[in-house]
Amino acid sequence: MQFFSGFSLQNESYLFNEYLSRSDYSVVGFSYGAIKAFNHVKQQLASGKRIDTLQLISPVFFQRNASKFKKLQMLTYTKNELAYMSQFMNSCFDPYEKKIVEHNETTIEELEELLYYEWDLEELQELVDKGVKLEVYLGKKDKIIDVTGAKELFLQVATVTCIKDANHFLQIN
Questions:
Q1: Residue 173 pLDDT level (bands cut at 50, 70, 90)
Q2: Model confidence, pTM
Q3: Residue 37 in contact with residue 44, Cβ under 8 Å?
């Protein structure tokens, strides 16, 4: 299994142990890492490599958010990165207790990619048509992404598991 971490994170896969496919032919992406995982799978398939499963855990989904929201996020990050990241992490764990996670340095370019990324239904369908099982996991209490929009889009091509009381990290308490 290859795992792609969320924005500003590293080594957080332990939080998702109960959901992870541990096969050598599985790729998993959490939040921002879902974009990286998706692109990795496309590249692997293009070069003739085998991928059986792509798991997207709380994949970034802001394509229905207003431009004003995205610009405000960028501005707030630019003005005070530390305060922005602290609030961001608190929102990821809300409404439950914060767990210990390792952090990586972030860039404004990564935040911009995260906020402005748009999932392409045709590209997702191409993966499925090539035999990749697509699994999406969403927390209904996620305060980061547009859960409803993500669910509507991914249900067209994937098995979507919505966890009723879960947050962005799929915690339920």
A1: confident
A2: 0.95
A3: no
